[in-house]
Write a structure and sequence with these properties.
The two termini are 24 Å apart. The protein is built from 10 helices and 8 strands. It has 246 residues and is α/β, with parallel strands linked by helices. The protein has a single domain (3-238), classed as Glycoside hydrolase/deacetylase (TIM Barrel, Alpha-Beta Barrel), CATH 3.20.20.370. 48% of the residues lie in helices and 12% in strands. The structure holds zinc ion. Zinc ion is lined by residues 55-56, 106, 110, 146, 206.
């Protein structure tokens, strides 16, 4: 099977189950099914470890506060960056790496790949990969499409750029208006999956204004709960994602 056909076949499998996802994106049933059927895509890893991930930055208004909060907890995380924001904040992007975090690709612009032509998706992801790699000085390994929208174009773009597409097992719904540290921690706890990859945001560019402050408030609450469960916290590169290439 050619690589293009393999991607198309994989996309068919993903889309067959994600047909449910896009009509009911938040349902427990869908997420559980995705984690079980597609653990690699979902970011399922070591059950004693939590992969902490932040999307939509870097953002000079909010990312520095997130970095300080992570330092205070002794945590390192994976930041899914947007190429266009990296070009606007190259120093902050380098700081992510200098402070021990992992940079990954969220695309160049924050637009869905669901109805994009393959050529458009490939150009977007390749540009973001090159920008992030050049600025950070470290080649990114992972790609998470905006809105978690998995399409054949997104899968092909990831493959052509040498990136592994990964979503999440668990989220805090920290983008919603009215989200609080407590509500985010409660949602993460309710949607927790063994070997969790947790989705949060270090910027409010696609979220309710100021929502990142609630995300900050959630971090120490999560630290207490995860410590009580004996869980370690770190970036995706330390997560042992099921089926991922080393
Ligand atoms: Zn996003």
């Amino acid at each position: 099977m050619t690589s293009t056909r393999r991607v198309a076949a994989c996309a068919g499998a993903v889309l067959a189950v994600s047909g449910v996802a896009h009509s009911l994106p938040g349902t427990v049933a869908w997420r559980s099914m995705r984690c079980r059927i597609l653990p690699r895509l979902s970011g399922v890893g070591d059950p004693g470890h939590v992969a902490l991930t932040f999307d939509d930055g870097p953002d000079p208004l909010s990312t520095p506060a997130v970095l300080d909060a992570l330092d205070a907890l002794g945590w390192r995380a994976t930041f899914f960056c947007l190429g266009e924001r990296v070009r606007r904040a190259p120093g902050l992007t380098r700081e992510l790496v200098e402070r021990g975090h992992e940079v990954a690709v969220h695309g160049d612009r924050h637009t869905s790949h669901l109805r994009r032509l393959a050529a458009s998706s490939m150009a977007d992801v390749a540009r973001a990969r090159d920008t992030i790699g050049d600025v950070a000085g470290v080649p990114p390994r992972w790609f998470r499409p905006p809105y978690g929208a998995v399409s054949s174009s997104a899968l092909l773009a990831a493959k052509r750029s040498g990136l592994q597409l990964v979503l999440w097992t668990t989220w805090g719904r920290d983008w919603r208006p009215g989200a609080t540290g407590e509500s985010i921690a409660a949602t993460v706890t309710r949607t927790f999956w063994p070997g969790a990859t947790v989705l949060l945001h270090d910027s409010d560019v696609t979220s309710a204004p100021g929502s990142w402050r609630a995300t900050l408030d959630a971090l120490p609450l999560l630290a207490g709960r995860w410590a009580a469960g004996g869980l370690r916290v770190g970036p995706l590169r330390e997560h042992g994602v099921v089926g991922a290439s080393p």
